[in-house]
Design brief:
Layout: H1 3-57, H2 61-72, E1 77-84, E2 89-92, E3 111-114, E4 118-127, E5 130-140, H3 142-189, H4 208-268, H5 276-300, E6 308-310, H6 312-330, E7 333-337, E8 345-347, H7 349-365, E9 377-386, E10 389-396, H8 403-406, H9 424-434, E11 438-444, E12 461-469
Helix pairs in contact: 1-2, 1-3, 4-5, 6-7, 7-9
Bound molecules: adenosine-5'-triphosphate and magnesium ion (MG).
Length: about 475
C-alpha cells in the first residue's frame, strides 16, 4: 500500500475512534445532567409533599399557595401543582388551573416522567398513612438540551478542524515527500554512464530530507564517475604500458642491428662520396626512433619513489636551468615568485623535477601556436597554503585549453599536438599521486566560450596547481 493510503487509513481509524469517544462522552454527559435534574426534582417534590401535608390536613390551601410560590423561582421549574385525593387542583403556579379536576391516577410513590422538552416529578402526599394528594413539579429541559447541543457543536467543530489538518498533512506528504520520491526513484532508475554528469533536479517543493538524499545521490554519481574515469585511465595506462614495453622491445633489437650495420657501412663509404648523406639521415632517424622508444619504455615502468626532505624552490630552479635555452629561443619570460619561507616538502626530488619539466614544457609548447605574441609569460609561484601542503602554481598566457578538452588531458595518449605523445600529464599525475599530492589544471580562454562576465579573469591561459605534502619533522631529527 502507498504511503498516502497508509496515512489516510491511519487518520480514518483515528477519526472513527474520536467520533466513538465523542458520542460516548456526549451521551454520558446527557445522562449525568438528567440524573442531576431528576435528583433535584425528587428532593424538591418530596420536600414540598412533606411541608404541604399539614396545610392539606387542615384545609389551609392559601398556605399551600405560598409554599408553591416559594420554589417556583428555582431554575428550570416550569410549573408546580398540588392536587388532593380527588385530583382537584389545590394550588398551581399556573393560576388558571386552580379548582380544576384532572383525570388520571394519583401516584403512590415518587415517579419521574419525561418527554423531549419536560421532566415531570410526581410525589405522593400521605397523611396518617392515607394517600391524600400529589405534588407535581415540571422542569423544562430546554436549557439542558441547549447545553448538550453546544457540546455537540464544539465537538463537531473540533472534528472539522482535525479533518482539515489531516487533509493538509496528507497533501504536504504528497507534495513534499511522495511525488519527489517517485521522481527520484524514476531518475535513479534512469542513471546510466551518459547521465552520470547530469544533476538530479527535483521540484522546489521537495522536502529538505529528499533534497539531501538527491544531493547525496549526485555526490555518489560524481564519485562513481571519477572512480570509473580513474579505473579506465589506469587500465589504459597499464595496458598501453605493457604493449609499449613489448613493442619497444621487439623493435629495439632489429633497430640495433640496423644501427650496427649502418655503422659498419659508414666505415667503407667515404664521407664525401655520393649517398653518404643518406647514412647520416638513417643515423638521425634511428636516434629519433630510439628516443621515442625510450619514452614509451619509461612510461611503462612505475618508478620507485625515494621521498626525502626536499626544497621545492630549488627543484624548480634546477628544472628552469635546463629549460632556459629553450625559453630564450622562443622568447618566453619565466617569472619566479618564490615564497622565501616555503616549507620543505616530502618528495623524491628527481621525480618532482620530472613533473616540473613536463609541466613547464607544456607551458612552453602552449606558445607554439602564438608565435607572434609579444608578451609570452610563464609564472612560477610557490606558497604555503596550509592544510599540510606546499604549493606550486605554474601560470602561462599561452593557448589555454578548450573546455571540451579539459577533462581529457589526463587520459593517457591524449594530445592535441602534432608531435605530442600525450603521456606527460598522466605520468605527472601518477607521480604526484604516489606522493599523496594533488595536481589540478584550470584554463581560461579569451574566446566566445568564456565571455561570461562572472568568469572574467585577469589572465588567459593555463594554470597548473601542484600540491605536495609538507615534510613533517620527527622527534629524532
Ligand atoms: N599549459 C598548457 N597549455 C595548453 N594546453 C596544455 C597545457 N598543458 C597541457 N595541455 C594540453 O594537454 C594535452 C596533454 O598534455 P600532455 O603533457 O599529457 O601531452 P603532450 O604535451 O601533448 O605530449 P607529451 O607526452 O610530449 O607531453 C596537450 O596535448 C595539450 O593539449
Ligand atoms: Mg606534455
Amino acid at each position: 500500500m502507498r504511503l498516502q493510503g497508509k496515512v489516510s487509513l491511519f487518520f480514518g481509524g483515528l477519526f472513527l475512534l474520536i467520533i466513538i469517544q465523542g458520542v460516548f462522552f456526549i451521551t454520558h454527559d446527557r445522562r449525568i445532567f438528567h440524573r442531576e435534574m431528576a435528583d433535584t426534582g425528587r428532593l424538591l417534590a418530596e420536600n414540598l409533599a412533606e411541608i404541604s401535608r399539614e396545610s392539606i390536613a387542615s384545609y389551609q390551601f392559601s398556605r399551600l399557595l405560598s409554599q408553591v410560590e416559594s420554589i417556583r423561582n428555582k431554575s428550570d421549574v416550569e410549573y408546580i401543582s398540588i392536587v388532593n385525593e380527588n385530583n382537584l387542583v389545590l394550588a398551581d403556579t399556573r393560576s388558571q388551573y386552580e379548582g380544576w379536576i384532572f383525570s388520571g391516577e394519583l401516584v403512590r410513590e415518587t415517579v419521574i416522567e419525561q418527554d423531549r422538552s419536560t421532566m415531570l416529578v410526581r410525589a405522593p402526599v400521605y397523611i396518617l398513612g392515607t394517600l391524600r394528594g400529589n405534588v407535581d413539579i415540571a422542569f423544562s429541559l430546554d436549557s439542558l438540551n441547549q447545553k448538550i447541543k453546544e457540546n455537540i457543536l464544539v465537538f463537531l467543530l473540533f472534528i472539522l478542524f482535525e479533518v482539515a489538518a489531516a487533509i493538509l498533512f496528507i497533501l504536504v506528504i504528497e507534495i513534499q515527500l511522495v511525488r519527489p520520491l517517485d521522481q527520484l526513484a524514476a531518475k535513479v532508475t534512469d542513471i546510466n554512464p551518459n547521465t552520470l554528469h547530469d544533476p538530479i533536479i527535483l521540484p522546489s517543493s521537495s522536502s529538505i530530507e529528499i533534497t539531501r538524499v538527491s544531493g547525496a545521490i549526485d555526490q555518489m554519481k560524481n564519485n562513481l564517475k571519477k572512480a570509473q574515469d580513474e579505473i579506465i585511465s589506469k587500465t589504459k595506462m597499464a595496458t598501453m604500458g605493457k604493449i609499449a614495453a613489448s613493442f619497444a622491445h621487439e623493435i629495439r633489437n632489429p633497430l640495433e642491428a640496423i644501427s650496427g650495420s649502418v655503422e659498419v657501412l659508414s666505415y667503407d663509404i667515404d664521407e664525401k662520396a655520393s649517398g653518404f648523406e643518406y647514412i647520416a639521415i638513417i643515423r638521425e632517424e634511428i636516434k629519433n626512433l630510439n628516443g621515442y622508444l625510450e619514452n614509451f619504455l619509461e612510461f611503462s615502468k612505475t618508478q620507485p619513489v625515494h621521498r626525502i626532505r626536499t626544497r621545492l624552490n630549488q627543484v624548480i630552479e634546477d628544472t628552469l636551468l635546463l629549460l632556459r635555452p629553450l625559453c630564450l629561443k622562443k622568447g618566453i619570460t619565466c617569472i619566479r615568485k618564490y615564497y622565501p619561507e616555503l616549507a620543505d616538502c616530502y618528495a623524491d626530488p628527481w621525480l618532482i623535477k620530472r613533473v616540473c619539466m613536463n609541466l613547464l614544457l607544456n607551458s612552453i609548447e602552449a606558445f607554439d601556436e602564438k608565435t607572434d605574441a609579444e608578451d609570452k609569460r610563464v609564472e612560477l609561484e610557490t606558497a604555503n597554503p596550509g592544510s599540510g601542503y606546499v604549493q606550486l602554481i605554474i601560470r602561462d598566457n599561452g593557448s589555454g585549453i578548450a573546455p571540451e578538452h579539459l577533462d581529457k588531458i589526463f587520459d593517457p595518449y591524449y594530445t592535441t599536438k602534432a608531435s605530442g605523445s600525450g603521456i606527460g600529464l598522466p605520468v605527472c599525475r601518477q607521480i604526484v599521486e604516489q606522493h599523496d599530492g594533488i595536481l589540478t589544471i584550470a584554463s581560461h580562454m579569451n574566446d566566445d566560450r568564456a565571455q561570461d562576465e562572472d568568469r572574467a579573469h585577469d589572465w588567459n591561459g593555463t594554470e597548473v596547481r601542484l600540491m605536495l605534502p609538507v615534510f613533517a619533522r620527527t622527534a629524532d631529527e
